[in-house]
């Protein structure tokens, strides 16, 4: 059951896509947030999924940035690459409360889009290269598929190599 926040985020996503006249399809499925499991429900390889993870990047003692890292579903976020990208002292996973507040959705439903000025989107080139890019649509029971090119144009992420080796 969508919470008010996830419902608002879902509605905002669909409005954004419809306003931009982007081609997309919605896929209803059993509630699932784990990448491998939801890929099986949707019937595609994990490499075509967008895995979205909120990171905390400490640039220096006083400056913390929040980054939405978007990598292929069969890969891991390379925290060292993110750290180097920002010339930071530290890069790691955000706490759940901060991640939910910034992503405006619960774990397993985080979009590869940001609706919060504090959350910068960085996508791996392999994500935007996908002919078909799948992700949960701010809900555990509904996913969305669109082209990586349309995603890149609409979300305007910073495109950097941030994906590590395949998740094992």
List the helices and strands and how they pair.
Layout: H1 4-19, E1 25-28, H2 35-42, E2 50-58, E3 64-72, E4 75-77, H3 79-85, E5 90-93, H4 96-103, E6 119-123, H5 125-128, E7 133-136, E8 142-146, H6 148-155, E9 158-159, E10 163-166
What is this structure, in a nutshell?
With 168 residues, the chain is an alpha+beta fold. Helix content is 30%, strand content 29%. The protein has a single domain (4-166), classed as YbaK/aminoacyl-tRNA synthetase-associated domain (YbaK protein, Alpha-Beta Complex), CATH 3.90.960.
Question: Could you characterize the architecture of this molecule?
Answer:
With 168 residues, this protein is of the alpha+beta class. The protein has a single domain, classed as YbaK/aminoacyl-tRNA synthetase-associated domain (YbaK protein, Alpha-Beta Complex), CATH 3.90.960. It is 30% helix and 29% strand. It is built from 6 helices and 10 strands; from the N terminus they run αβαβββαβαβαββαββ. The strands form 3 sheets. A 5-stranded mixed sheet has the order 5-2-3-6-9. Strands 1-8-7 form a 3-stranded antiparallel sheet. A hairpin with a 5-residue loop joins strand 7 and strand 8 (142-146). It is globular, with a radius of gyration of 15 Å. The N and C termini lie far apart (31 Å).
